[in-house]
Amino acid sequence: MEAALEFLYSLQGWPAYGLVLGLLILCGIGAPMNEDIVLLVAAALTLKGVMDPLPLMLVGWIGIMIGDTLVFHWGHRFGAPLLGSRFFSRIVSPARLVEMQERVRRGGPYFIFVIRFLPGIRTALFFAAGSLKLPYRTLFIYDGAAALIELPLLVYAVRYVGGNWQQIWQTVANAQGDLLAGIAALLLFWLARRWYLNRQLKKRGERA
Fold first, then answer.
1. What is the residue range of 159's domain?
2. pTM, full prediction
3. In this structure, how many other beta carbons lie within 10 angstroms of the beta carbon of residue 199?
4. 63 and 42 in one domain?
5. pLDDT digits (tens, 9 = 90+) for 5-40
């Protein structure tokens, strides 16, 4: 991880974007690297002219989606039997898969959105979601939307503090619980509003 980030500092333009893309895909499929730190370091490099914010966010979104989709596909296509291999048992053990599946099952399709904001266990959860045979469109819609929110926040937060990505990382780590609570509250509000509107439409239909 450290060697890759040092190499990233030495690059300029498209080679830098290519390395960020590759690192994000590797992070997504379970490599021992932190996806958020890659993004934060890359965001800091936009202040040095190594990359520009908008192309970085586009490349970052593509890398995130490729990595998440691969893990989701492996879970969807092969499921638990794949965990017999040494590499995939590092992503999630067979025993832990049942726990991860239950989390996803309780959260429903909307939980895919929340998974994007769960560093450390998101790869295992995406594999579990795939193994439950959730539709691919669910991943694309909710994970894609979450990434569109996450990337601008990370990139422009680092730029706002002058490239001090360590400060942002500490803030993200400390505020993870508050962030998840806020996301959960927004989802509950949206679901309650949708239920209320559907109920009102049903009542109008009965009166008609």
1. 2-174
2. 0.74
3. 10
4. yes
5. 666 666 777 888 998 999 999 988 888 788 888 888
